[in-house]
Design goal:
With 326 residues, this protein is an alpha/beta fold. 40% of the residues lie in helices and 15% in strands. The chain has a six-stranded parallel β-sheet, covered by helices on one side. It is elongated, with a radius of gyration of 25 Å. It starts with a helix and ends in a 12-residue tail after the last strand. 37% of the residues are buried.
Length: 326
């Protein structure tokens, strides 16, 4: 592994001169600076970010923690975070699950962006502080060092269900995500409120617990098909589960939407190809905004008011019209 001493020897300068160049100090001549940077590139030298942080006590690195590789929207969020971080001369560490907690330390990282339902509120409260701000993307927290950047789930879900009802659908099933998550709670509440506002009853037997993954939607649809009566529409708390349900219906000869309509939430990469009616979340912007607020808080521009991201409804062929039947 190439080290700073190797760079110094190759360039014919002292270690401190190389260090000054890597830390963007102005006390090195331009010709020497360019020679050192060229040698770093030739030797594929990568600075030891953690070591530099430990030495200076002021890391220019933020941490993004997420919990599920199975959901494609994470990549868009990461792209948004990465673009803002790079534009502001910060480094980015990405990790998952429990391994992230050891990096949530002001001697290693400057702050964290969290999208991990497994990380408990009390853990975040314990780790956040004046010198360690946190941005959460999956919950609303009342803490002076934690900012919430969350999707506005309720209004678009309500409007989408109202749109489905306006197209003549009168009976519904629901496939939910993990019941403890804020997103699932808000989407389900909007679904129930829209039905109630239209005097449509919903029976609890028509609720299926999923986990936001395609297989759970597929399984829910298979169970639903064992019933003698299918609902007019199956509402899924995210696209992955909706796509799984659509695959199960089609494998068993059911037509979408002629025999049963399906809706999702997220507008994942496959949603358009599947003709899925859904709610589109601007995930790149979600990551970009989270990174912006975190770096502003790191720099002392304290802002912990909850920020809600707007989402829009996209009606596609998975929902038709049943008005002719009523």
């Amino acid at each position: 592994m190439v080290g700073i001493k190797d760079i110094a020897k190759r360039a014919g300068v002292s270690v401190s001169t190389v260090s000054n160049v890597l830390n963007n100090k102005k006390n090195v001549g331009e010709e020497t600076r360019q020679r050192i940077l060229r040698i770093c590139e030739e030797l594929s030298y990568q600075p030891n970010v953690a070591g530099k942080a430990l030495k200076s006590g002021k890391p220019n690195t933020i941490l993004f923690n997420f919990s599920d590789f199975d959901r494609s929207f994470y990549l868009k969020i990461i792209n948004g975070i990465s673009d803002y971080v790079n534009d502001n001369d910060f480094d980015l560490i990405i990790c998952t699950d429990k391994s992230c907690e050891k990096y949530m330390n002001s001697s290693l990282t400057s702050g964290s962006i969290i999208l991990d339902k497994k990380m408990q509120d009390d853990t975040l409260t314990r780790l956040a502080g004046e010198n360690y701000p946190i941005v959460v993307l999956d919950r609303i927290m009342n803490n002076q060092y934690i900012k919430s950047v969350v999707v506005n789930n309720y209004e678009p879900m309500y409007e989408m269900i109202q749109g489905v009802i306006d197209r003549g659908y009168r009976s519904f099933g629901f496939v939910g995500g993990p019941e403890e998550t804020a997103d699932n709670k808000e989407r389900y509440r909007a679904f129930r409120d829209a039905l109630e506002a239209n005097q449509i009853q919903f029976q609890q037997k028509s609720y299926f617990a999923g986990n936001y993954r395609e297989k759970s939607g597929y399984t829910a649809a298979k169970i639903l098909m064992l019933s003698r009566e299918l609902p007019d529409c199956l509402v899924c708390a995210n696209d992955n589960m909706a796509i799984g349900a659509m695959k199960a219906f089609r494998e068993n000869g059911l037509r979408v939407p002629e025999d049963i309509a399906v809706t999702g939430f997220d507008n994942c990469d496959l949603a358009e190809a599947m003709g899925l009616t859904t709610v589109s979340i601007p995930n790149y912007e979600r990551g970009y905004i989270a990174a912006r607020y975190l770096i502003e808080n790191i720099r002392g521009q304290r802002n912990v008011e909850t920020f809600k991201i707007s989402a829009k409804i996209i009606f596609r062929s998975s929902v038709g019209s049943k008005k002719q039947d009523i």
